[in-house]
Structures are given as C-alpha cells and as structure tokens.
Amino acid sequence: MSIRVLIVDDHPMVTEGIQAILESYDDIKVVGALNNGQDAVDQIVTLAPDVVLLDLNMPGLSGLTATEMILEVRAETRILILSMHDSPEYISTALRHGATGYILKDVPTEEIRTAIDKVMAGEQYLCTGTKGSLKPKISDGRETLTSREQTILLELAQGKSNKDVAGTLNISVRTVETHRQNIKRKLGISSTAGLTRYAMEHGVLQGTGI
Prior knowledge:
By secondary structure, the protein is an alpha/beta fold. The protein has nine helices and six strands, in the order βαβαβαβαβαβαααα.
C-alpha cells in the first residue's frame, strides 16, 4: 500500500524538487503540492495524507499553527517540519506543537525518504543536522505531550468519555480516540485509570499543567 504524502511549501522550487524525489519511489504517492498552510488545513480530509512535509515559515498561516489545525482534523497524520533552522528552540517548539519529525531542507534526498519511513513506523525523526538538539522530554523521561494532548488528558482524567470530550472540544470522537492512544503511548500507560492517576500525580487536575 502506498504512503500518501502531501507537500506544503511556499517556494515552488522546493516543492517541485521534493515531489520529483518522492515520485521516484514506487511505494510513495504524492497526493498534493500546496503553497500555504491554510490550503493544507482545508484539504487535509479530502487528500488524506499519511505524512505532511510542512514548511515551518510561510506567509499567512505558519507551519506551527497549520500543524495544530491539521492534527485537530486528522490526528493520525504525521507531520514532518521542513526548515532551514536547526536550533534546539525551533525544533522543540515544532515537536511541542505536534510535529512527528523535523528535517532540514538541505539534507540529502535519501534522508527525506528515511524520515518518512521513520514517522510511518511510529518513531520521531530528527534529521542529521539536528541530532544534538533537545528532544521534548518531561522530568521522568517520558515524551512530552502536545498542548492539545494535555487538554484532552485533563478532560479524560475528569472521567469524561470520548464522546463527551469530542462534544466539549468540538472535534470528532475518532480524533479524541487517536489523541487518547497517542497519550497512552507517550506516557507508557495502558489504562484510563492510569491516565487519571498520572494526571493527579502531575497536577493536571489542579490546572497546573504537566
């Protein structure tokens, strides 16, 4: 089954170059090449990509905002941020907003393929130039939740069902379930009771955050 990839970058040469690279692989299908974040958000359900290669800096809707909005609509999508910046601050911020990986625009072409494979396997990917950068971790070594995941954890910890959470946040039940599974995976917790206990221990129920 082909990996469906959407490319979003406001520089046509970048978009066309990446598209040409990816289309050389038999098991990758480029479902779209867009030049702004808002179009990506608007078309994410129709195009249904497995992976979005998303420019960090675009006029209008930024890559960070687009990441959050895309994941609200289609939480199972993996976001790979494309950027010219390799500073830890840029990278950690992108990951906090929900990106699954971060890759520099000037990496060798084969690394883009590697990044796609890694995020499709459920792993986080930081490209070669960012290996020394800080991954988002909380004090006990677990992977940091995105701001949206923290919000959903708070709702779930109060005993609300997926349907209740979906109604409160105006998102689909499927999106809540995807977020729920991601939260469990990141925290290494398998039960709802475990999520509630974690939320209590880390002050989430008191509104102090994780």
